[in-house]
Write a structure and sequence with these properties.
The protein is of the alpha/beta class. The protein has helices at 40-48, 81-86, 90-103, 110-125, 131-141, 158-170, 188-199, 212-218, 237-252, 258-273, 282-290, 355-365, 402-407, 415-424, 441-454, 471-483, 495-501, 520-525, 530-534; strands at 2-10, 15-24, 29-34, 55-60, 66-68, 176-180, 204-208, 221-226, 229-234, 318-329, 332-343, 347-351, 373-378, 384-387, 459-463, 487-491, 504-508, 513-516. Helix 3 runs antiparallel to helix 4 (110-125), helix 9 (237-252) packs antiparallel against helix 10 (258-273) and helix 16 packs parallel to helix 17.
Length: 541
């Protein structure tokens, strides 16, 4: 158990937390949520001891071991992958090193023998003889190639480093597991493995994540950081969000019967309780939800931007035909022989093992990059608009304010018109006169969505549209793209976004492409297509 008592964190110019009291109990998974800048990652740092609070204390039950997901990808460059994983259990790794040092001594004294015997006893108690096997199981589960197990970390790709550091945190079954954005840079298969691993984990998990599917799948509770508090609620993210919205509607619509809202909430609880039925935690989750009173739910102070797209022209039947397309980046071929057809109402999720290949493909479709070969035939009715993954060129060395910046992309120059689009993305009043060069990553993305909405296109090309956004903005983007009546070309690592928006999946390999005429969840579950997918990749990839 880990207990937070009367916790304050106050800087000279800003208050983060005040009077936080929470108990984290084994067997539960706690998702920490809050607006950008609310202090989610800071909260985890205080729990881990990396940062001190202004007041209060964090009490960890004696004998409990805590593991934290490391973010420094270069810290272990001189160690092998297996060593790096085992280092997640510091005491076990220290004993292994101490044993090796003793047995290498010459002469080996009686005193050394006694020390070695004591180390061997503790080593066995910590299940040290199975350490390498456990490390390999974790790496296999996360789909790290066995070729990398005994390579130095500096020789391993960045994506595999992320997985190895995650395996390090999971190693040795720590009593308390702190995970800050554990799904970042993981492929969907690795995320699914992690979800299943955590579902059956019987100890305490505390995680920060912007991955709604992950939070919904694994979390038994949410810790909402809002109003300088960190309040605990039973249920997953969707349950918290729905409950908060219900509470908000109750406050705004007091003449509605409370019983009707409670009935609606109970129906939502029933739907949630059916999720993750294979988990050993499902029964206890259901019981905890049944005890919830609507009065316990406090409406959030956070605001949701509005993302909604109108089309200046309806889309015809034929949208796009691509034949034998090949393209390079920095002189290196990233894909070739890509062919597919997109029709009206198709919303396409582009998948692939190489993120650069997908980004280059969307850049080619948007007309930003010339292909090496092949043909691209757009339908006559298509009006397309592009949201790139890297938007820095739109903002660098730019002295314009937000209104002036957006005016560059508008046929209508009036400030009131431009402010209406900025207001949808929560830039109201004086905020709309902010210089664009001082915007945060999330604010820049919201500006780009103002630009995208302004275009009134019937075909949207969007590359990683949820990057840098908070959960509220992500949800709004999800809703906007789901309700859009035109075609969408989409890349994303957001499972919820892909599963709710896309009705067609196209995998882009280095040797070709594969089209799947169904939704994203069906694609992931279909075992029969693996044979076809492997054909579009070289064996080494």
């Amino acid at each position: 158990m880990i207990t937070v008592s009367n916790l304050d964190l106050i800087f000279s110019d800003k208050k983060i937390f005040e009077g936080v009291n929470i108990k984290f109990i084994p067997g539960n998974c706690y998702g920490v949520i809050g607006a950008n800048g609310a202090g989610k990652s800071t909260f985890l740092k205080i729990l881990s001891g990396e940062m001190e609070s202004t007041k209060g204390e964090v009490f960890i039950e004696k004998g409990n071991r805590m593991a934290v997901l490391k973010q420094d990808h270069y810290e272990y460059d001189e160690f092998t992958s297996i060593e790096t994983v085992i280092m997640g259990h510091k005491r076990l790794y220290d004993i292994m090193r101490a044993k090796d040092a003793l047995y290498a001594k010459d002469p080996f004294t009686d005193e050394d023998g006694i020390k070695a015997a004591n180390y061997e006893i503790e080593f066995a108690e910590l299940d040290g003889w199975n350490a390498e096997v456990e490390a390999e199981k974790l790496l296999n589960g996360l789909q790290v190639s066995s070729d990398n197990f005994y390579k130095k970390m500096r020789e391993v790709s960045g994506q595999d480093k992320v997985k190895i550091l995650l395996a390090q945190a999971l190693f040795g079954s720590p009593d308390i597991l702190l995970l800050d954005e554990p799904t970042n840079h993981l492929d969907f298969q690795a995320i699914e493995w992690l979800e299943n691993f955590l579902l059956d984990y019987e100890k305490t998990i505390i995680t920060v994540s912007h991955d709604r599917h992950f939070l919904n799948k694994v979390c038994t509770h949410m810790v909402d950081i809002d109003f300088f508090q960190a309040k605990l609620y039973s249920g997953n993210y969707d349950f918290w969000r729905e409950s908060s919205n219900l509470a908000q509607r109750l406050m705004l619509n007091s003449n509605k019967k409370k019983e009707e809202r409670i009935k609606e909430l109970k129906a939502f609880i029933a739907r949630f309780s059916a999720n993750a039925s294979k988990s050993s935690q499902a029964t206890s989750r259901k019981k905890s939800l049944e005890k919830i009173n609507l009065d316990e739910i406090v409406p959030s102070s956070r605001k949701y931007p509005y993302v909604g797209f109108t089309m200046s022209r309806d889309l015809g039947k034929d949208v796009l035909t691509v034949e034998n397309l090949s393209a390079s980046y920095d002189g290196e071929k990233v894909f070739q022989n890509v062919s597919f057809t997109v029709n009206r109402e198709d919303k396409v999720a582009f998948l692939g093992r190489n993120d650069l290949a997908k980004t280059v493909l969307l850049s080619v479709l948007a007309g930003e990059i010339e292909p090496d070969s092949g043909t691209i035939s757009w339908g006559q009715t298509v009006i397309k608009s592009y949201l790139p993954m890297d938007n820095s060129s739109y903002f660098n060395n730019n002295d314009l304010n937000l209104v002036e910046w957006l005016r560059q992309f508008s046929k209508e120059p009036q400030e009131s018109y431009l402010r209406s689009f900025l207001g949808r993305m929560l830039f109201s009043g004086d905020q709309a006169l902010k210089p664009v060069k001082v915007l945060s990553g999330g604010e820049k993305m919201r500006c780009m969505f103002s630009k995208l909405m302004l275009a009134e296109a019937n075909t949207l090309i969007v590359d990683q549209p949820t990057n840098h956004l908070d959960l509220e903005s992500i949800q709004s983007v999800n809703t906007g793209l789901s309700e859009f009546k035109g075609s969408v070309f989409l890349t994303s690592h957001d499972h919820s976004l892909l599963s709710s928006v896309a009705n067609k999946v196209i995998e882009i390999g280095d040797l070709g492409s594969y089209t799947y005429e169904d939704n994203f969840d069906s694609y992931l579950k279909n075992e029969n297509i693996k044979h076809y997918i492997e054909k579009i990749y070289t064996p080494s990839k």
